[in-house]
Specification:
CATH superfamily of one domain in chain B: MetI-like
Mean pLDDT of chain B: 79
Low-confidence stretches of chain B: 726-734
CATH architecture of the largest domain in chain A: 3-Layer(aba) Sandwich
Strand order of the largest sheet of chain B: 1-2
Distance between the termini of chain B: 60 Å
Number of strands of chain B: 6
CATH architecture of one domain in chain B: Orthogonal Bundle
Strand content of chain B: under 5%
Largest sheet of chain A: 11 strands, mixed
Structural class of chain B: mainly alpha
Largest interface: A-B, 81 and 91 residues
Number of helices of chain A: 14
Largest sheet of chain B: 2 strands, antiparallel
CATH topology of the largest domain in chain A: D-Maltodextrin-Binding Protein, domain 2
Radius of gyration of chain B: 28 Å
CATH class of one domain in chain B: Mainly Alpha
Number of strands of chain A: 11
Oligomer: heterodimer
Helix content of chain B: 55-70%
Number of helices of chain B: 32
Shape of chain A: globular
CATH superfamily of the largest domain in chain A: Periplasmic binding protein-like II
């Protein structure tokens, strides 16, 4: 009996002491809890700048958009995050539709039309911060070695010479690939679009899970051609990989990155200050310092010279309201599964 | 019994009177609560909350504590007292949890009428130190009462241990996991029904068999199952070969071999996959070489089954080895000698004596390999190509562009049922035979050496494997010193400087970007590892040595958290521990807990394998000589469990550092982990810094493991650790 007691005491001491050590209710004054879905360096830099400017203490962690959305959903009964900054607008729109985020009421008058548009569809719950253009990249060395012609249009990707050379993500798991699917449907019309997707599908060597994976594979020569967002490709090219970037001649789609305040955020005022800060020209001009080459959403911000030249590109009039809605999405994905995806 | 109960009772009362009931701002050890233990409505203890701050329901739920006190004072009959203690403490536990669930942060969820008025409507936050002290005191009063009723042979220690582990597994495995599994049965409007589940469950995407007659891919369930069986078998075989070489041969580079078998588990995720791509990918070094010199066409063969299989063999063989080494060592030489005395040759000795005695080890190693392969998602993600498996499907049904938690839950159930199947098969194969070979009786023999053919086979499998491992890891180290791994191989220190620079100008300042997460990771893993080991081995002890009702179910339930993919665990922990009564999200404790309960099965499996070799007569002898079960555990079992303890410590430490999928959801701004940092960089295409960080982690873990091996040392079985000479002993004729 005595030893039972001793051991019990030892156990309970351990089990009580450890949890107790960490029980700490979050402090509340002038704090901001942020999840950042942008590039780590960009996150770090903006946090430092914001803290210096406002004196608000920012606790930041970087997570991808899918992970953040899953976490925000799971935490909705008692949110721990105040603000979610960065990543494609799609999951931000989903969060807005599900009531997981709230309107910030910031002034959007300085923003580009496409950024205001994102705010309008989401009833002000998410604000556009940057624009990312969809494109095609090819590994110049592998292309030369195989004696292939560089692609210039969406239609080129259906050519038989590219069999097994193209890589793109699966739209069921990747927002990037869904943007591609929706873009082709909007450029060519739904039936024609799916025929083209199916023909391109003949040339696809792998539907990856993640949207940025194909361009990384192209950089290392694991595939010759990749479809994805151009800012990912530009980053790899600047890092030194032999990638050339093409904007398809028929016109291409784009995504608008978003920033949203979580519904029930404990530090709403600080969160609002963050939104105001990241859509200001002053903040957005810092992008190139850390190799961020998106097109900024503030009209007064300077567009980095490495960014896709949107003035000369053929951008389609991407219909976020229709193609962002869950009905359209489910229908298109089901059709994709039946006509394109199942062939693999 | 009375004395034990009284002590627990006093602890409980102190907890209710003098410890803050709720979570404290700044943490318990800030002691900021001391001044306001009665007066501050945030920091007050339970009784003070009830008396002075209108939280009357706390008083009600603590009444059983008073009840126990009265019972202890006035009931003289021991049996009757035990019965009372059991009933009252059950009531206490139920009431405490009930009030925790009913009154949430925003007020009462049900019975709102009862809670009208200031404090009831204002709600309450999660349990703090006081609540935990009281809960533990109630739990141990309960188990003490049970032992008083004669359960568990009246041994308070055993019953207490069972009670403790059952409740820990209940709270930290069943409770969160049930949150997510229930979603498999949820219809679109949140209604519960079987129809939804069966629709998802019978989908041809999961069970399709078109691959048998067409050139199409099979259902994900078959893919996963096939892969898991192959991986389980492959890792067990390789692990056995390594273990045999380490214990039954005079191979010179044994130590090096041991290190090599450990390295793969200390590799952060994605790194192995990346290294394999650079070697065997379409533009990989080996592929280029073969193309240039032998005109072998460059293909993408790596992406698919073979890529995942090779990566998993690399990653999981060490686990099999860790489980098997103790077991292979433990097989009694006297049995082997007996076999040889009876004129058995070395092959017969191995085949009919040593090998059957290794069965618990083999079975447990296979099971671990099987489960690891099923739940692994890093390797399939990088190398899977179009070979889709359950774990990645689950991950993307949670975080993908079209999130569908019902589908994720259904797939998780498919995965769990396969694990359950493997578990049951393993049980059948082991049967009820005895595998005890460490008996305490004199056996000063020598292990039989392997017969030449078997030895040749072991060398032939392990040496190429070891070389392969060396190549893969040299590539990783190489990758951290070059500008752009796989493309621009000019030498640079830049990645290390960015990640780990230190500024000495005014005092030491850690300016590198990786330091924060590095320190957090080390702290959390070093707290989690010993806890995991204790919980795991204690569970193994109960499973092997004690008999109690529902043991089989208990055993499987301890495997549950290991078998479920990390993503599911991560989300389920948020769902369960984000709101009172147990509110842990955003703290480091949730990370520690997830590691302890996710990795404890390895401690359990290794412990079971090692403990089934220890003859029960050792325990019995100790008990006969008057020692109680605690002393027996401490003086007899623990010293003989050296290898198992080492394996569990090593493994849990390392897993806490290298695991990704569960952690991604649980890391917070203040507690970021190394892996989530690395993945962020990989996603961003900054491979250099990711690999440099991985290399530093590998070196750190390796030093810790070697240190642990040095401290724990080898168990001494009073056997000569020599291998018999290769000349056959002619004992029979002597």
């Amino acid at each position: 009996m005595k030893t039972g007691l001793k051991l019990g005491l030892a156990f309970s001491g351990m089990l009580v002491a450890f949890p107790a050590m960490f029980f700490a209710a979050p402090a509340l004054s002038d704090e901001l809890n942020m999840v950042c879905s942008n590039e780590q360096d960009w996150c770090d830099l903006m946090v430092a700048n914001f803290e210096a400017k406002t004196g608000i203490n920012v606790a930041m962690v970087r997570k991808s958009t899918g992970e953040t959305l899953a976490q925000v959903r799971a935490e909705s009964s008692n949110p721990k995050i105040d603000i979610w900054w960065g990543g494609t607008g799609d999951p931000h729109l989903v969060a807005a539709q599900e009531g997981l985020t709230q309107a910030s009421g910031v002034d959007t008058s300085e923003l580009q039309d496409w950024a205001v548009n994102l705010s309008n569809i989401s009833e002000g719950k998410t604000i556009g911060i940057h624009l990312g253009v969809l494109g095609v990249a090819y590994n110049t060395e592998v292309l030369a070695e195989k004696g292939l012609n560089p692609p210039a249009c969406w239609m080129d990707l259906t050519k038989a010479e590219y069999k097994g050379e193209i890589q793109v993500a699966n739209p069921n798991s990747s927002g990037t690939a869904y943007t591609e699917l929706a873009t082709i449907v909007q450029v060519f019309g739904e039936d024609e679009g799916f025929k083209i997707l199916k023909d391109i599908g003949e040339n696809i060597n792998q539907y990856t899970k993640s949207g940025s994976a194909p361009s990384k594979a192209a950089g290392r020569g694991e595939t010759t051609i990749s479809i994805g967002f151009q800012h990912d490709m530009i980053k790899l090219a600047i890092a030194g990989f032999p990638l050339a970037i093409v904007t398809p001649c028929e016109g291409t789609g784009y995504e608008v990155g978003g920033v949203s305040i979580i519904a029930g955020a404990k530090n709403f005022d600080s969160a609002k200050k963050w939104v105001e800060y990241v859509i200001s020209a002053e903040a957005q001009n810092h992008g190139p310092e850390v190799n961020v080459f998106n097109v900024p959403s503030n009209k007064n911000a300077t567009i980095p010279k490495e960014a896709p030249p949107i003035a000369s590109l053929k951008l389609i009039d991407y219909d976020f309201a229709t193609y962002g809605s869950s009905e359209t999405r489910e229908r298109l994905l089901a059709r994709w599964d039946a006509e394109v995806g199942d062939l693999n | 019994m009375r004395k034990t109960a009284i002590i627990w009772q006093i602890i409980g009362l102190l907890g209710a009177l003098l410890f803050p009931w709720y979570m404290v701002q700044g943490g318990f050890f800030s002691f900021s609560w001391v001044g306001g233990i009665f007066s501050d409505p945030k920091n007050a203890s339970a009784f003070a909350q009830g008396l002075f701050h209108q939280k009357w329901w706390l008083i009600t739920s603590l009444l059983p504590l008073v009840g126990t006190a009265l019972a202890l004072l006035f009931i003289k009959n021991t049996k009757l007292l035990a019965k009372f203690l059991v009933m009252i403490s059950i009531a206490g536990l139920v009431l405490i949890f009930a009030q925790g669930f009913i009154v949430s942060r925003t007020g009462a969820r049900i019975f709102a009428d009862l809670f009208v008025g200031g404090a009831g409507e204002a709600g309450q936050v999660g349990f703090g130190a006081g609540a935990f002290v009281v809960l533990f005191s109630q739990l141990f009063i309960l188990t003490t009462g049970f032992s008083g009723l004669g359960k568990g042979r009246g041994d308070a220690f055993i019953v207490g241990l069972i009670g403790l582990i059952v409740s820990l597994v209940g709270v930290f495995v069943f409770f969160p996991v049930s949150h997510i599994l229930i979603q498999a049965f949820e219809g679109p409007e949140g209604n519960l029904g079987l129809a939804e589940f069966f629709d998802n469950f019978t989908s041809s995407r999961i069970w399709g068999v078109r691959c048998l007659y067409e050139a199409n891919s099979c259902g994900t369930a078959w893919n996963s199952l096939f892969l898991a069986i192959m991986t389980g078998a492959g890792t067990t075989l390789l692990g056995l070969a390594f273990a045999l070489i380490a214990t039954r041969t005079n191979f010179r580079a044994k130590r090096l071999l041991r290190v090599l078998t450990i390295i793969p588990i200390i590799t952060p995720p994605f790194v192995i996959g990346l290294a394999l791509i650079l070697l065997f990918g379409r533009s990989g070094m080996v592929s280029e070489f073969l193309y240039d010199h032998f005109d072998v066409e460059k293909t993408r063969w790596l992406y698919g089954f073979w890529g995942i299989y090779i990566a998993q063999l690399l990653s999981f063989t060490p686990i099999a080895f860790l489980v098997l080494i103790g077991v292979v060592e433990g097989v009694s030489p006297s049995m082997e000698e007996a076999s040889q005395t009876l004129n058995g040759d070395r092959w017969q000795t191995f085949r009919f004596v040593s090998f059957p005695l290794m069965r618990p080890g083999l079975a447990n190693a296979f099971l671990l390999g099987f489960i690891e392969s099923m739940a692994d998602f890093g390797n399939p993600l990088v190398l899977g190509g179009n070979y889709s498996v359950l774990s990645t499907e689950i991950y993307f049904s949670i975080v993908g562009a079209v999130a569908n938690s019902g589908k994720a839950a259904t797939l998780a159930i498919v995965l769990l049922s396969m694990t359950l199947g493997a578990f049951l098969l393993q049980r059948m194969w082991l049967g009820k035979k005895s595998y005890a070979t460490v008996t305490g009786k004199g056996d000063s023999g020598q292990h039989a050496s392997l017969n030449p053919l078997l030895r040749g086979f072991c060398y032939a499998t392990t040496i190429p494997w070891a070389i392969f491992t060396v190549i893969v890891y040299s590539m990783i180290v190489f990758g951290s010193f070059v500008k752009l791994w796989g493309y621009d191989h000019s030498f640079t220190f830049a990645h290390y400087i960015r990640a780990f620079s230190i500024n000495f100008t005014d005092g030491i300042r850690f300016t590198g970007v990786a330091w924060d997460s590095y320190f957090t990771t080390l702290t959390i893993s070093s707290i989690a590892a010993p806890l995991t080991t204790i919980v795991g081995l204690a569970t193994a002890y109960l499973l092997v040595r004690q008999k109690f009702v529902g043991k089989q179910v208990f055993e499987f339930s301890t495997m549950l958290s290991f078998a479920i993919p990390g993503t599911v665990i991560g989300v389920s922990y948020i769902l369960a521990f984000n709101v009172p009564p147990i509110e842990l999200t955003g703290t480091s404790i949730i990370l520690i807990l997830v590691f302890v309960f996710r990795n404890m099965p390895v401690g359990v499996r290794g412990g079971i394998a090692a403990m089934s070799q220890l003859d029960k007569s050792l325990d019995e002898a100790s008990i006969t000589l008057g020692a109680n079960s605690f002393t027996t555990v401490r003086k007899i079992i623990v010293p003989l469990m050296g290898p198992a303890i080492l394996a569990a410590l090593t493994y849990s430490f390392v897993r806490a550092i290298t695991s990704v999928s569960a952690v991604i959801f649980l890391v917070s701004a203040k507690h970021n982990m190394a892996t989530s940092f690395i993945i962020g960089r990989v996603e961003n295409g900054e491979f250099g810094i990711a690999i440099a960080y991985s290399t530093v982690l590998i070196v750190t873990m390796l030093s810790v493991i070697l240190l642990l091996q040095f401290i724990i040392g080898k168990r001494r079985l009073r056997r000569e650790n020599r291998i018999q000479k290769h000349t056959k002993t002619k004992v029979a004729q002597a």
